[in-house]
Design goal:
alpha+beta; Beta-lactamase Inhibitory Protein, Chain:B, domain 1; 5-stranded antiparallel beta sheet; 7 strands; 51% strand
């Protein structure tokens, strides 16, 4: 039973490594973090490979709408970085190995 639990933990760890989320991204010697402005990310990381407009999101109080964009960087060592901006602020960083 212990071996089975150990194998299950290893399998889950491998799956988690396929696509991961992070709070920071290294661009050369610079770091970008969640909450950074899109202009800061552009200055530190340069122009992305693509920019996709995903739509709009309403604020919690429903009085404002924010533009939602996804920027793609890579591949770098076989990895793509997907940065999601909401209202000009970096809200999510995902990494995924390219095919």
């Amino acid at each position: 039973m212990m071996k089975l639990n150990g194998l299950l933990v290893m399998a889950l760890a491998l799956l988690a490594g396929q696509a991961s989320a992070s709070d920071t991204l290294r661009c050369g010697s610079q770091l970008v973090s969640l909450g950074d402005r899109s202009s800061e990310v552009l200055q530190k990381c340069g122009e992305p490979v693509s920019r996709d407009m995903l739509g709009y999101k309403r604020s919690a109080n429903r009085r404002e709408e924010f533009q939602v964009e996804e920027w793609t960087y890579g591949p770098s060592n076989g990895m793509y970085q997907y940065l999601r901006f909401e209202g000009n602020r970096l809200r999510q960083i995902n990494s995924k190995r390219g095919n």
